[in-house]
């Protein structure tokens, strides 16, 4: 039990860090659009996924039409759709307000997941949930002041995109865990690879439509290394770290931990996102922002301790009855 617990916790925290990198994408790709970045990122991720599939023994029994279609759908909901809504929210609402709304994800997941599975008594969720709410208010409060709102391009676009990202991620987390639970013999690596390939297929299918709508800058700015080298470097780096690593880590966490507990860990994505936004803007956090990050981390630590203590006590009780 201890090994599964620590692997699940480590995987969830790594996934949170990997997903938080989406917040800084608009500020590192220069004149290229987020659609250009998404194309490079998901094509590289799909190539990695194909390598995993072709290197896996006995893969054909997992490549059913149902599994492939389900993986493509999950890729659309949780990776392509989520990535585009998050980066769009960061562009229009800024790198602080976007993580503020996405802080709703663990709260919604925590409530829905525990309502469905009943994996943790509600009394164990009250204190971590309270710390999460306080931390989010402290971290994001300054973003909603007059000074913070002046630097926002459009709340009317950024806020709906942020809420859409919340909905997509909650939907993905619940649907993905249900799919993994229904297929206990499905290796996490194979399922991750199918989702990665699905994301690449979706981006390729979208490219002609996006190019006709002038959403991609690659045809205009050029595909050559001299022009697009930075885009390729960042695209490949985040494909390997944020997409491949994030998908794989989250699938491991989904298989190892209840949704309600994993949701409490994913709140660290907000802390990572705020820190990343501060690094991009080359400034130190204000005392209130720093306090908020500390409270968020305290909520994560408390939830880990409570869940571990409960599982440990359950284990001792079962051993005593044997």
UniProtKB/TrEMBL annotation:
The keyword Transcription regulation does not apply. InterPro entries: EmrE-like. SUPFAM superfamilies: Multidrug resistance efflux transporter EmrE. Keywords: Membrane, Plasmid, Transmembrane, Transmembrane helix. The chain crosses the membrane at residues 7-29, 35-54, 66-84, 90-112, 124-143, 155-176, 188-211, 231-253, 265-284, 290-308. This is DMT superfamily inner membrane transporter protein. It comes from Rhizobium gallicum bv. gallicum R602sp.
């Amino acid at each position: 039990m201890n090994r599964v617990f620590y692997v699940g916790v480590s995987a969830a925290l790594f996934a949170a860090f990997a997903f938080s990198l989406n917040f800084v994408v608009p500020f590192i790709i220069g004149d290229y659009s987020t659609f250009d970045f998404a194309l490079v990122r998901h094509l590289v991720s799909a190539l990695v996924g194909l390598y995993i599939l072709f290197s896996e023994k006995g893969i054909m029994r997992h490549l059913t039409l149902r599994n492939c279609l389900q993986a493509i759908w999950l890729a659309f909901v949780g990776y392509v759709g989520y990535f585009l809504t998050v980066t769009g929210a960061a562009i229009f609402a800024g790198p602080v307000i976007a993580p503020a709304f996405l802080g709703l994800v663990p709260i919604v997941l925590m409530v829905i997941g525990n309502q469905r599975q009943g994996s943790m008594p509600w009394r164990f969720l009250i204190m971590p949930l309270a710390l999460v709410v306080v931390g989010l208010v402290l971290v994001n409060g300054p973003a909603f002041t007059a000074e913070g709102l002046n630097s926002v391009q459009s709340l009317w676009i950024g806020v709906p995109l942020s809420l859409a990202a919340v909905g997509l991620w909650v939907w993905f987390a619940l649907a993905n865990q249900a799919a993994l639970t229904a297929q206990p013999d499905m290796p996490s690596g194979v399922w991750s690879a199918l989702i990665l390939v699905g994301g690449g297929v979706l981006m390729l299918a979208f490219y002609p439509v996006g190019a006709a709508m002038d959403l991609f800058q690659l045809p205009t700015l050029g595909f050559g290394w001299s022009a697009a080298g930075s885009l390729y470097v960042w695209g490949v780096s985040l494909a390997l770290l944020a997409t491949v690593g994030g998908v794989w880590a989250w699938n491991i966490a989904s298989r190892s931990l209840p949704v309600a507990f994993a949701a409490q860990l994913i709140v660290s994505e907000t802390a990572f996102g705020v820190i990343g936004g501060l690094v991009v803007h080359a400034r130190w956090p204000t005392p209130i922002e720093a306090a908020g990050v500390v409270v968020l981390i305290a909520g994560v630590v408390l939830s880990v301790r409570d869940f571990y203590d409960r599982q440990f006590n359950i284990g001792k009780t079962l051993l005593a009855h044997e």
